[in-house]
Amino acid sequence: MALMAGLANLALAGSPPARAVPVRLPAPVQAALTQAGVPVSAVSVLVLESGGERAPRLSHRADQAMNPASVMKLVTTYAALDALGPDFRWQTRITMDGRIDNGLLDGNMIIKGGGDPKLVVERLQALLMQVQSSGVRAIRGDIVLDRSGFAEPALGAAEFDGEPLRPYNTLPDALLINFKTLVMTFTPDLAQGRALVRAEPPLAGVRVDASVPLVQAARCGDWRGELRASVDSPSQVAFAGSYASGCGERVWPSAYAEPASFAARAVEGSWRQLGGLLTGQVRNASAPELALLARRGTLSGQTAPLRLDSPSLPLLDIVGDVNQFSNNVMARHLFLSLGLYSKLAATPAGTLEAGREAAQAWWRKTLPQAAPPVLDNGSGLSRSERISAASLAALLQHAAQSPLASALADSLPVVGAQGRLQERAKAVAGRARIKTGTLRDVSAVAGYAEGDSGRRYIVIGLINHPNASAARPALDRLIEWTVQDRP
To answer: Is residue 438 part of a domain?
Structure first.
C-alpha cells in the first residue's frame, strides 16, 4: 500500500516528488537530443524501480500530459486484460434461417460479427467449411451479414493522414475479416519468366492479375514501386510494371480500396472457392432486419435448425499481437469491446463513447490517485490522446504487482529482438521489454528494463516535437542508461 501511495503521488499533476530527484538528463540522452534539435522542454522522462519504494532514479517533467502515440496501447491492453480477463473470446455466430433438406438451405444464412479482431482468411474458411460439413452446401437465398455490434463515427480510412490504403488506417468492424486487407504474394517463376501472384482472401467481383513479368536482377530495390500497381479500383488490381528475380518471394498487404464491401466480397469469394453454392447475394442486413435479429435472432421468426458459434483466439493472444506489432485496428477493437462487453459503461455499446466511459471507469477504480489519460480511440493513432509519464508508470507498477504481470510484460517487444526494436538499443538487447510509439512529431517508449545490478526498472520517455523522429536515438540512450545502473 505504501508503494502504491507513493507512486500515485508521482502521478498527481503539479505535485512535487517526496524526495529530491535528479533534474539533469544523462549526458548521452542530452547529447542525442541536442543533435536532433529537440529541447528538454519537449521531453518527459521517468525511470524508477519496479516494486521498490526508492525515489525515482530519473524524473523530468513526469507530470506533463503528452501525446504517447502507440504507447497508449498499454492503457487499452491492460484495461482489457483486467476488465475482460485474459481468456475472454469474441464470438462469430452463423444462423441458418430456413429449412435444410439434403444439403440445401431454403432461406438465408446469417453471419453475426461479435468483434473478433483476428478473423483472418484461414479462420473464416474453417468456419465456412464447418457450415458445409454440418450439412449446408447450397443456399437458396442470401448470406446476410450482421455488422451492427460496433458503431464508430462514419470516418474514412484517409481521415488520419490521407493514406487510406495503408493497413494501419483500417477502421474497426464487428465482422472484421483479414483486417480488410488484400494480401498479395509474389513468387518468381524463372522457367516462365514471370512472377506468379496469389491474392488472399478471394474477393467476389475482384480480378487480380495472376502474374507480372519477371526481370533478371540480382538486387531487389524498390520492388513495390517497380510493380507499378493499380490498387485503387474496387474491381481490379493490375500491374503495369515488372518484378525482379532477386527479390525472391515477397508479400504485400494492401488495404482494400472499398472497405465497406470487403466482408461481403470475402465471404462470397471464400464460400464459392470452397465449393458452396449460392443463388442470392452476400449483403449487409438492412435496418429492419437488424431490428428483427435483435429481437428474435432470425429473420423468418422460425426456430433456427442450425446455429454455429466460432470463438476468437483468447484475449491474451490478441494483446500479444497488439503490443508486439502495434496493430491499430486490433487495439481499437479492444477499446470498443470495453464499451460493449465489460459492463463498465452505463449503457454498454460498441461505440467510442462507451469505450471511453468504460476505460475511464476502469482507470478510476484501478488507479484512483493517478491523473487519468485523455482517450480518443485507444490505439494511439490520434492527435488528441494524452497521458503523463507518471500515469504510465502508475499503470506499469500496478500491472507488475498484479496476477496479470506476465500477461502484460510478455506482450511487449524485446529490445534488440522483436518488432520495431530489432535495430534499436543493441547494447541492451534482451534486457528490456518496451512498447514504442511513433507519429509525426511524436516518439515514445515505455516498459520494463533489467539493470546490470539486477534491479528491475520502469522506464518511460515521451518526446513531442517536430524533430521527434530524429530524437529516437535519445530514447535508445535512455534505455541503455537505465540498464547500465552500476556506479
So the answer is: yes
206 lies in the same domain as 287:
no
**Within-domain flag for 186:** yes
Same domain, 177 and 206: yes
CATH of the domain at 390: 3.40.710.10
Structural domain of 99: 91-151+264-311
pTM over 0.85, yes/no:
yes
In terms of domains, do 390 and 448 share one? yes
Could you give the C-alpha distances from 201 to 12, 248, 370, 447, in angstroms and in order?
Answer: 49, 22, 45, 36
**Count of domains forming the chain:** 3
Lookup: cell for 43 = 521531453
- Domain co-membership, 274 together with 253: no
For residue 357, give the C-alpha cell.
466511459
Calculate the alpha carbon distances from 209 to 51, 185, 263 in Å: 57, 12, 21
- Would you tell me how many other CB atoms lie within 10 Å of the CB of residue 154? 7
Per-residue pLDDT of the chain (487 residues; tens, 9 = 90+): 333 333 333 333 334 444 444 458 999 999 999 999 999 999 999 999 998 678 999 999 999 999 999 999 999 999 999 999 999 999 999 999 999 999 999 999 999 999 999 999 999 999 999 999 999 999 999 999 999 999 876 555 445 555 655 666 789 999 999 999 999 999 999 999 999 999 999 999 999 999 999 999 999 999 999 999 999 999 999 999 999 999 999 999 998 999 999 999 999 999 999 999 999 999 999 999 999 999 988 998 876 668 999 999 999 999 999 999 999 999 999 999 999 999 999 999 999 999 999 999 999 999 999 999 999 999 999 999 999 999 999 999 999 999 999 999 999 999 987 555 545 556 788 999 999 999 999 999 999 999 999 999 999 999 999 999 999 999 999 999 999 998 7
Judge if 241 and 345 occupy the same domain. Answer: no
CA dihedral sign of residues 29, 34, 35, 36 = positive
- 413 and 272, same structural domain? no
